[in-house]
Design goal:
By secondary structure, the protein is α/β, with parallel strands linked by helices. The chain has a single domain (61-97, 113-306), classed as Vaccinia Virus protein VP39 (Rossmann fold, 3-Layer(aba) Sandwich), CATH 3.40.50. The chain contains nine helices and 14 strands. The longest helix has 21 residues, at 114-134. The structure holds S-adenosylmethionine (SAM). S-adenosylmethionine is lined by residues 68, 90, 143-145, 148-149, 166-168, 171, 191-194, 210-212, 215-216. S-adenosylmethionine binds next to helix 5.
Length: 307
């Protein structure tokens, strides 16, 4: 018997206590999928192991700027033709039809793309959590891509403004089109994690990254210096693949291997923990990722502030 899924309770993606802290009301994500059985899952795991041994995955880093220009350029062309939210969706979400949910692999059906929906709900829940805690209503997103995350927040009444920061010209242009769909989205700014310094002190804001620091590998220190030295009373929300927070299951281990191969974010979590021990940072919420795509566990949630 195939185990079918047609909805997922968001709370079930987190340990009970943390889930209750993060998600206030029952939130269901509708999608169609079939859970792979033991044999199918084992075969799939073998296939992932094989790929990890044999494929040359593109490594993240400064050399990829043109790739991002090109990728977001494709979205930009679509957006210019028709400025609708759908055209801002990053294409990498549309590639796979197998996702991870807890320790299961799920074959998604009817193009129902739960990854995007799950991330959206997690993003909204994380930001609502910060708003309840501090009352902040202004968001700055760094490495904002096309601005899709910010567009998905458009209906949140408590948000008063959202400012995108991106290093690719095409991404910045997309974000500016996003501003035409939602007036809360301000003019996009150039920002390079490796080189840019915050122009002036930022205060009372939510500083957000979503799968963006991911791209810097071990070179996140300038951005963190900016956060530590050039902000006042801000809360930082990092929804990033954090290797230290990936589970110790076979799936989790393959995910760590993949993150290493791609040279994704590494050392960031330990740095934050070190700063916490030194009494410079308080971690408000830290939640392991329990979902993801074929190769990678999805972003963990790390919410912190300076003290
Ligand atoms: C995986 S995408 C995520 C985009 C967006 N945050 C989202 O979730 O849709 C990574 C983003 O980081 C940006 N990025 C990569 N390296 C960067 C750097 N050094 N400075 C600023 N942005 C960078 C890319 O251009 C891209 O927009």
């Amino acid at each position: 018997m195939k185990q079918k899924i047609n909805s997922l309770n968001l709370k079930k993606l987190f340990p009970k206590k943390l889930g209750n802290q993060l998600v206030k009301s029952e939130t269901f994500i509708q999608f169609n999928g079939i859970v792979l059985n033991k044999l199918e899952k084992n075969n799939f795991l073998k296939k992932i192991s094989y790929d990890l041994k044999n494929y040359k995955f593109v490594k993240a880093g400064a050399h990829r700027k043109n790739d991002w220009e090109k990728g977001w350029g494709e979205n930009l062309e679509l957006i210019k033709k028709k400025n609708i939210v759908q055209n801002f969706i990053p294409k990498y979400y549309l590639k796979n039809n197998v996702i991870r949910i807890r320790n299961n692999l799920v074959l998604t059906k009817n193009n129902s793309k739960p990854e995007i929906k799950i991330l959206e709900k997690i993003l909204i829940s994380s930001l609502r959590y910060v708003n309840k805690y501090k009352g902040h209503s202004k968001i700055m997103e760094f490495g904002s891509g096309t601005g899709y995350n910010l567009l998905s927040l458009a209906k949140e009444k408590w948000i008063s403004s959202m400012e995108p920061f991106e290093w690719s010209k095409s991404g910045i242009k997309c974000c500016n089109y996003a501003g035409k769909l939602c007036r809360k989205i301000k003019k996009a700014n150039f920002f390079d994690f490796y080189k840019s310094i915050f122009k002036k002190k930022i205060d009372n804001k939510i500083i957000l990254t979503v799968a963006a620091l991911e791209q810097t590998g071990k070179n996140f220190s300038l951005f963190l210096k900016n956060c530590m030295n050039k902000t006042e009373n801000c809360v930082f929300v990092n929804l990033e693949p954090i290797q230290e927070l990936m589970p110790n299951t076979k799936l989790g281990k393959l995910s760590k291997k993949y993150a290493k191969k791609r040279k994704y974010l590494s050392g960031f979590y330990n740095y934050i923990k070190k700063k916490e021990k030194e009494g410079k940072i308080k971690i408000l919420l830290e939640i392991k990722s329990q979902w993801g795509s074929k190769y990678l566990n999805g972003p963990s949630i790390l919410i912190w502030e300076k003290i």
